Amino acid sequence: MTAESGAGTQAVERAMSLLLCFSDEESELRISELCARTGLGQSTVSRMVASLDRLGFVLQDSRTGLYRLGPTAVTLGSVALNSSPLFRTARQLAQNLAQSTGLGVNLAEYRDDQLTYLGNFDGARAPKNFTMAGRTAPLHATGMGKAVLADLDPAFVRAYYAEGRAAAYTPHTLTDLAAMEAALAEIRSRGCATEVEELAFGRACVAAPVRGRGGQVVGALSISGPLSELDLPNRQQQLALTVIEAADELSVGLGFSPTRAPQPRPAAVAAEPGS
Question: What does the longest C-alpha to C-alpha distance in the chain come to?
Fold first, then answer.
């Protein structure tokens, strides 16, 4: 690698590190905050932010002086989302499901040991004032995550817990390996997963895995909302059948044949699954 190419690579990495500082919790930042988060000097950050601003990756509020992600970042996110075969295949189905049930419908993709939300579709009885697209979902604390875990090699699940990844979000989160293994066995038996206040109080979901052409789980679909709207004591079986049928339809749309046995998945124990 030449010195010039090395410097160019470093500049790209630094610019990307600045963009990665922005999050839902901290969507507007000062130059000083970007310096503190990246460890870069103020002159370097100021110069790079000016370039990112010119390209539309960030915008500066003229009143507060704070920076936020700009329209170019939105455009690239949209391109990435629309290039996903899973999202393209699921979009209309998920919209119809949200309309017919009145509940929220979530779609997530499993790749590189991470479960990432591709979209959430609001139902009339379970609206959200934000989008979840791009966020990662903890595998052990969500219905979709558990639907995926049920398909993975048991060695992966054991390593997940042994390495302390199963953080408690509420007192209901399954932080014990034995409890999770029992839950996963039940999920395999009934074909869907439930989550009741394991990630957030007052909310629940019913989820089913989505399979790709080779039979491997590539994502998950869930129906979610407030506990009072899901009414699981009376509606769990109905919701389970609904989400399983929708996930199966989506799997077929991705090329999966129910007669094709899933391929065994290797135990990728070294990579971080995300949260």
Answer: 67
Question: What is the rounded distance in angstroms from the CA atom of residue 222 to the CA atom of residue 199?
Answer: 14
Contact 232, 103 (CB under 8 A): no
pTM recorded for the entire structure: 0.78
Give the integer Cα–Cα distance in Å for 254 and 218.
Answer: 10
Environment class of 254 (CB within 10 Å of its CB; exposed 0-12, middle 13-18, buried 19+): middle
**pLDDT by 10-residue block (mean), the chain, 275 residues:** 57 88 85 92 91 91 90 84 84 92 93 88 74 84 95 94 93 95 94 94 94 92 92 90 94 83 43 32
Look up tokens 């990307």; give the residue: 16
Phi (first) and psi of residue 248, to 5 degrees: -65, -40
Token pair of 79, please?
């391109």
Q: CA 116 to CA 109: how far, in whole Å?
A: 5
CB-based contact 117:132 (threshold 8 Å): yes
Distances in Å between the Cα of 52 and the Cα atoms of 25, 68, 136, 176, 270 are 21, 11, 25, 45, 34
As a whole number of angstroms, the distance between CA 225 and CA 254 comes to: 27
